[in-house]
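User: structure tokens for M23 family metallopeptidase, please.
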Amino acid sequence: MIRLIFFVLYFFLSFAIYAESNVTEECNQEWICLIQTKDEDGITLSIRNYNTNPQVTNSVLLNATLVNFKTDISFPYYVVVKGPSPVYITKFVLDDKTKNAFHSFSFLFRPGDWDSVHDDSVSYLLPFARGIRTKVVQGYNGSVTHFGTFAHSIDFGLPVGTPVHAARKGYVTATESKYSEGGFRKELLSKANFIIIQHEDGTLGNYAHLMKNGVVVKVGDSVEAGQLIGYSGNTGYTQGPHLHFEVHKPNRQLDVTTIPTSFKTQYSERDTLKEYFMYWHPRPGIDPIKAEILEEDIQICKLSPKRERVECGKTAFQLGENFLVSLEFVRPGNQKIEVDISIEGKSFEPMKLDWVAEKNLAFEARYVSIPNNPKLVGRWKARVRVNGEEKKILFFDVKP
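Assistant: Done. Predicted tokens:
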């Protein structure tokens, strides 16, 4: 997850009386600028956004240390800065013009508006291209990282390089694309590539763990819902390739508050996504589907040396190799799976696999090691049944 908190401390020493009006401006990188106008009575403080785009909104928490100054506001002081115009904060008046005076300012800020109210009538698009189907590998209140302020976050299991599309129109307010490393280590928490898009209601969409150089928009761009914005990856604090998506707004502690959202899916126009369910963009005339599993999601795959499934749809193996019978259910459940494996034209007793699907797995699979026995060369057949109903027959060749 991305934590965009910024801190700047400014010190100024003032002696006696200001002889003439004098304006200074100090900016934090490309985010917030403090404007001080000094005169014989004291200092007038204003804040503006560095970026002059009228859509830019930042929430700021301001603190001050004062010696020989008085003001009519108390600190910490909260303010939302919208657009390019400076926001007046206060006048710091010299208490005794014959004495030295000291002041320092510090502030924290986060993009977005902490007073924003999410438009719950919005139905978000799935943040990937049409034709892609993927599972939610961690949903709301997920036990790995989706708790506390990040409780309403969603992780989509997408391979590295999958196109990422905007789920809602808005304005690009921040991006990062320089990182290349990913892993489940705390030092990588701040090293994920991301895109932050501000919405019309002041909330923000966060698309995180993108691939290195996987951002195709820039700060200041206006994007439409469904527009290509980048490519998924495996950077930052992650257990594997996926796209992290959340809608949030800043809170008064300058952390984020994630917001529950509804999506347009194959099930409905307003769907709440669930962990381990598979989702895709709705297809008119086809969806919603009623099956628990689609025929195309029953496959023979190769088992890699790292014991990962690869080359799904493979139709030829060699003696001594391993293969997987893989099933991806649209909806998780306790389905009973039975697989009978035989060799055409040979009288070997069919190999039988049977198990009950687990609800907390992204996919179901059982692997088989092909013995290095020349008698097993031939055309193999795997008959797959789910809950007693035949779903698919798979064929593949085993060669010497």
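User: Anything notable?

Assistant: DSSP finds no helices and 33 strands in the chain.
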